[in-house]
Amino acid sequence: CGGLLSSSSGTLQSPFYPRNYPNNANCVWEIQVKNNFLITLRFGDIQMEGGKCLSDYVEVYDGPLQTSPLLGRFCSGYYRTYTSSSNLMTVRFHSNSRYTYRGFQANYYSTPADDSTTLLCLTDYMHVVVSRYFLQNHGYSAWNLTLNDPSCTPNITSEYVTFDIPYTRCGTVREGNNNTITYSNVIRGSSSGTVITRNRNLRLHVDCKMLQNTWTQTMYVADDNFEVNETQYSRYDVNLTFYDSSYFSRPVYNSPYYVRINQNLFLEAYLYSSDPNLVLFLDTCVASPTPRNSTVTYDIIRNG
């Protein structure tokens, strides 16, 4: 159970719904829609072991499971609705070893977010788009926007200001810890001079945070009176290719790739990134009897 849901709308439900779910289930769904869209999740049917929701329950997170705020935890009720602040939401279902019930069913759909500012964390750079109407409405000039390195200039049209900010240039700062690599830059702006304003100079903070299996994209605007926060998520750009020998000269294009028991496999993993300091690590690889059967798997690599 669980998995990645990437369509603009869809359904998720507990295992075997509407029949009783199994004991000791631990299912995690990641709902990820297009960048700059929000997710609305609606539970229409919920039946689990009641009480204080210590045994069987559903949790909804506003982003990845380990690092995001908990929007709700429940085991009963009707028509519960949650809305994300970004394009990623996580749902976790847990059951214990005692009683089982019908479980739950939920539907989700996506809606466009505010387009005043948008942020994409791409393979080699951050793509930032700022609405000129948004700038003018707050008394800032499109022609006065600069990065940490002022020599990196934006593309300005009649409607938008666009920055393509490399991860390794233009004053981008790289910081890392055990779980996250963060690329940061700041877009600065000043008053246009044609509007009387009490605002300080504009500071639009742009952050791309690379987690173990997810890109986190954060942008917020700060001045005297307001903050605008925006977070988006996307996946690593990684290519996996099988080869027919240890020479790695002839790739295997068959999909699915059928192999024999105890056959040696040759796999190349390639990470597309302009950052030379990244290390690619292959954690887990499994085989299954058929392309659509993942209930029975054979471990090729498990936890490295």
What do you see in this structure?
This protein has one helix at residues 132-137; strands spanning 3-5, 9-13, 26-32, 37-47, 57-61, 70-74, 80-83, 88-94, 103-112, 117-121, 125-131, 155-156, 160-166, 173-176, 181-189, 202-210, 215-222, 227-234, 238-243, 266-271, 285-287, 298-301. Strand 5 (57-61) and strand 6 (70-74) form a beta hairpin. It is mainly β and 304 residues long. It has a 5-stranded mixed β-sheet, with no helix packed on it. A 5-stranded antiparallel β-sheet has the order 14-15-16-17-18, with no helix packed on it. The chain has 3 domains: 3-112, Spermadhesin, CUB domain (Jelly Rolls, Sandwich); 117-234, Immunoglobulin-like (Sandwich); 237-304, no CATH class.
List the helices and strands and how they pair.
Layout: E1 3-5, E2 9-13, E3 26-32, E4 37-47, E5 57-61, E6 70-74, E7 80-83, E8 88-94, E9 103-112, E10 117-121, E11 125-131, H1 132-137, E12 155-156, E13 160-166, E14 173-176, E15 181-189, E16 202-210, E17 215-222, E18 227-234, E19 238-243, E20 266-271, E21 285-287, E22 298-301
Parallel strand pairs: 1-3
Antiparallel strand pairs: 2-9, 3-8, 4-7, 4-9, 5-6, 5-8, 10-11, 11-13, 12-13, 14-15, 15-16, 16-17, 17-18, 19-20, 21-22
Outline type: flat
Per the CATH scheme, the topology name of the largest domain is: Immunoglobulin-like
In total, the number of domains comes to 3
Q: What is the helix content? A: under 10%
Point out poorly predicted stretches.
Answer: none
Quick structural overview:
This protein is mainly beta and 304 residues long.
